[in-house]
Structure of protein-glutamate methylesterase:
Amino acid sequence: MNNKASLLPSGQRIIVVGSSTGGAEALKVFLSGMPSDAPSILIAQHMPELFMQSFAQRLDGLCRMRVKQAEHHEIIQAGNVYLAPGHSHLLLERSGAGYQTVLSKEPPVNRHRPSVEVLFRSAARYAGTNAVGVMLTGMGKDGATAMLEMHSAGAYNFAQDEASCVVFGMPRAALEMGAVDEVVPLEKMAARVLASIGVLHK
C-alpha cells in the first residue's frame, strides 16, 4: 500500500485517461512522470482481459504511484492508479466526502469494454471542475463525446499531439469536437497535467 495514499476529498482533482493503440507504451511514459503522491488516476485502456493484470504489475514496478487493476467499489485514494479490467467498464461516483470506483458489465460502448466514453462521462457527472481529462494515442473516436461533456462541466482536458501518437484517431476526434484545452507531446504530458492542477513536477 502506498503510504502516502489518502482518501481523495471530492473537492480535490482527479485525473481520467483514455488510450488504445500504442497506449501501453504511452501510459508507461505518462505515469513514470508522476510523483508518488499525485492525484488519483483512473484509466480506460483498450486491452484484452488476459493481459491486464500483468500490465498493471509491470506499470506498478516502473512507477512511483501504486498501479493496480480497479476493483468494484474501492475508495479512490491519492497516489494510486486504477486500471479498468479488460472485462468491465470503469466509472467513478461520489462516496461520502470522496469518490469510489464502479465496475460495470454493461454492453460495449463504441465497440469497447472498457470504454473511454463511459469513464469520461462519469467524470463529467461526478467530478466536474475537479476532473482533468487526458486523451492518449488510439484508433477510433472512443471518449471524444464524453470528453466534450467533461469540458462543458468545467474539466481541463489534454490530448497527445499527433507527432508522438502511434495512432492520432482518438485525440483527433476529441480535438475536432472542441473538447481539448491543450495538445501536448507525450514526453511533456505528465508535467503539463501536474502544472494545470498546481502540482510541481518532481
